[in-house]
Design a protein that fits this description.
Blueprint lengths: L1 E5 L4 H12 L3 E6 L13 E5 L5 H8 L4 E4 L12 H21 L3 E5 L26 H18 L4 E6 L1 E3 L8 H10 L5 E2 L3 E6 H14 L5 E4 L2 E4 H12 L6 E2 L2 H14 L6 H8 L7 H7 L7 H13 L6
Parallel strand pairs: 1-2, 1-4, 2-3, 4-5, 5-6, 6-10, 7-9, 8-12
Antiparallel strand pairs: 9-11
Helix pairs in contact: 1-6, 2-3, 3-4, 5-11, 7-11, 8-9
Length: about 325
């Protein structure tokens, strides 16, 4: 079977490519001309240049593919212009799904995010049953709206399954993503302090497997949270300390101090500390993956081994100062 992956050069996409190749799929990847292809080096993948904002390039890449994984997205905060995150995450999803409907794809797996579940005001884990999410910024809103587009196409007869990964960690995080950047900053001793934040951290290789399982067993129109271990940021840093032998930061910064700095970051265009990223950190939900475990056989497990793999990959690929 031939599968198309959008966003194949990204973190989740590159691990998904490997999961499909291990199962003897023929893999075609839609990649932008400017995409860094480091994560795909040495793999037997057919590359087609294009962009999810360009319907003609999507159709060119999708011809002959019975299975489609739509993993392309702009995973960033404080994006300027703000319209860009909607053009890619919402408009791009509509373009991909329209092509899949027109070309008769047998199954589509849409990569959403736990961001589409919205923020949480307490430690109670969220799951797929959230109907009216508390959306904290453009990224969350764009992922929620992209899910609405996916459900529109289910009503048109396209068999779309939605998966909602939490914060993945592991190898091939080339960019790196915001979750990978926490690890890189820790390894480079650039985290003198931390905030009181909730996280759910998941093995990116388990997320890739979850996509394959969703294609095989998922029900059209349903969404499946692909999560791992619920942790505070302090607990995550302590795990990294045990793995690496480096000391974890001991200073916890109050949000009263961080919000003025984040407001300044929003004004100056900082992609790291800004109001959107700070709200996401403060109100990030714990999540449950019971449905994915029950219906798909998704493996929910501790995150330690994935953290070891991430540390090893970042060190071996030049992300860590000597």
């Amino acid at each position: 079977m031939r599968a198309l992956i959008t966003g194949a050069s990204g973190f989740v996409g590159a691990n998904l490519v490997r999961a499909l190749l291990e199962r003897d799929f023929k893999v075609r990847a839609l990649v932008r001309p400017s995409s860094a292809l480091k994560a795909l080096e040495g793999l037997d993948v057919e590359l087609v240049q294009g962009d999810v904002r360009d319907p003609s390039s999507i159709r060119r890449a999708m011809k002959g593919c019975s299975l489609v994984f739509h993993a392309a997205a702009l995973y960033a905060f404080n994006v300027r212009p703000r319209s860009l995150v909607y053009e890619i995450n919402v408009g791009g999803t509509r373009n991909v799904l329209q092509a899949a409907l027109d070309l008769g794809a047998e199954r589509v797996v849409h990569t959403s995010s736990v961001a589409a579940l919205g923020g949480a005001r307490d430690d109670s884990p969220l799951d797929e049953r959230v109907e009216t999410p508390w959306l904290l910024g453009d990224y969350q809103r764009s992922k929620y709206l992209a899910e609405r587009v996916a459900l529109e196409f289910v009503q048109k007869g396209l068999p779309v399954v939605i998966v909602n990964p939490s914060m993945p960690v592991g190898p091939y995080d080339v960019k790196p993503t915001p979750s990978g950047r926490v690890i890189v900053d820790f390894l480079n001793r650039k985290m003198p302090a931390y905030a009181d934040a909730r996280l759910n951290v998941v093995d990116v290789e388990a997320v890739a497997l979850g996509h394959v399982l969703a294609a095989e067993k998922g029900r059209a129109g349903e969404r499946y949270v692909l999560g791992g271990e619920n942790l505070t940021l302090e607990q995550l840093l302590q795990k990294l300390s045990r793995i690496t032998g480096l000391p974890a930061p001991k200073v916890k910064l109050p949000y009263g101090l961080l919000f003025p700095l984040a407001a300044l970051g929003t004004l100056t265009g900082s992609p790291r500390l800004n109001l959107e990223s700070l709200r996401m950190a403060r109100y990030h939900p714990y999540v449950r993956s019971d449905k994915a475990a029950r219906e798909l056989g998704f493996p929910v497990k501790p995150i330690d081994e994935a953290l070891r793999k991430a540390v090893k990959w970042f060190r071996e690929n030049g992300y860590v100062r000597r």
